[in-house]
Design a protein that fits this description.
Elements: H1 2-25, E1 31-39, E2 42-44, E3 48-57, E4 63-71, E5 74-83, E6 88-96, E7 101-107, E8 110-117, E9 120-127, E10 136-138, E11 146-152, E12 158-170, E13 181-185, E14 191-196, E15 204-205, E16 218-229, E17 232-238, E18 246-252, E19 260-265, E20 271-273, E21 292-293, E22 295-304
Parallel strand pairs: 2-8, 12-15
Antiparallel strand pairs: 1-3, 3-6, 4-5, 4-7, 7-8, 9-22, 10-18, 11-17, 11-19, 12-16, 12-18, 12-22, 13-14, 13-17, 18-21, 19-20
């Protein structure tokens, strides 16, 4: 009995000694960091991005790795990872964007870039290119049949609520007069909204004097159901050719014309930009380069907070 116990004790001591000898001779732990990912890699201020990386122990012994996240060269987070030889794990951090900018992100020898953009909020915005004071009210001259104003969206998107138009109806409520058609075109000139422009809302004049023009017409707002545009868009008013009775749009010459055109409705019913300016050069509006149609777009622009 005693002999058997002695044999077991000797065997245990020898096994322990062998294990210690093996550990003493094993390579030390070695850690590698790879596959750093930033999702999403673009956020707005106040939003959060998730940072992940894979940590692998390529050494021969277990060990502790201290994963350190550097955000814009500043330590933002640390995590201790216990890994056996050959083992891998994914470490995860989160970053909240506090200020717009482009920032380096690092864990170990791996790196990436996180872009933080300003947070966008809807802000009431009026897009306009006129001074607010008409110099005259003009009907399209043949062969033109409509007015066109292009607008540049001040942000990634613009939600149109109202189209504001300065105009008048000339010649009373005669039967020869058609209701103007109001359209919104997208950047490819596709009609995305259309309605009748209620001429009864505009001042009605049986004759027009050249003096005191700013008191003859009036601003009229047309509410638009939810229409969202991005990039350039157009407001088009179709009135038909001038018959002596009809709609006239306010115009001023307060600045260079980079947005106002006239249109022609062709035999297929398609409105295209007129290639020839129809007004005689003896009038101020014969010079297209300084004429702005008095049409405005009102809505919400997504702008930095």
């Amino acid at each position: 009995m005693m002999r058997n116990l002695l044999i077991m004790l000797i065997a245990t001591v020898l096994a322990s000694a062998a294990l210690i000898g093996c550990q003493a001779g094993a390579p030390p732990p070695k850690f590698e960091v790879s596959s750093l990912q930033i999702k999403p890699n673009q956020i707005n201020t106040g939003e959060t991005a998730t940072i992940t990386a894979v940590v692998t122990n390529t050494g021969g012994s277990a060990g502790l790795y201290n994963a350190v996240l550097l955000f814009d060269t500043v330590t933002t987070g640390t995590k201790g990872l216990q890994l056996g030889p050959g083992a891998s794990t994914t470490v995860t951090f989160q970053i909240t964007g506090k200020a717009p900018g482009t920032y380096p992100v690092e864990i170990g020898d791996t790196s990436g870039v996180l872009t933080v953009k300003p947070k966008l909020v809807a802000k009431p915005t009026e897009l306009k290119y006129d001074s607010g004071f008409p110099k005259d009210y003009l009907a399209p001259e043949k062969p033109t049949t409509g007015y066109l104003v292009s607008f540049d969206v001040p942000s990634t998107e613009f939600i149109i609520h109202t189209i504001r138009i300065m105009g008048l109806v000339y010649g009373g409520r005669g039967v020869l007069m058609q209701d103007p058609e109001l359209q919104i075109w997208d950047s490819s000139s596709k009609v995305i909204y259309s309605s009748v422009l209620d001429r009864k809302k505009f001042p009605q004049l049986s004759f027009l004097l050249s003096n005191d023009l700013e008191n003859k017409g009036g601003w009229v707002d047309t509410e638009i159901p939810y229409v969202k545009v991005s990039g350039e868009f157009f407001v088009h008013i179709y009135t038909g050719s001038n018959t002596g009775q009809g709609f006239r749009l306010g115009a001023d010459n307060s600045g260079p014309n980079t947005h106002s055109e006239l249109t022609i409705r062709n035999e297929k019913g398609v409105d295209i930009v007129a290639t020839t300016w129809p007004y005689p050069g003896s009038y101020w509006y014969g010079d297209k380069t300084y004429l702005n149609w008095m049409v405005r777009a009102i809505g919400d622009a997504m702008l930095p907070e």
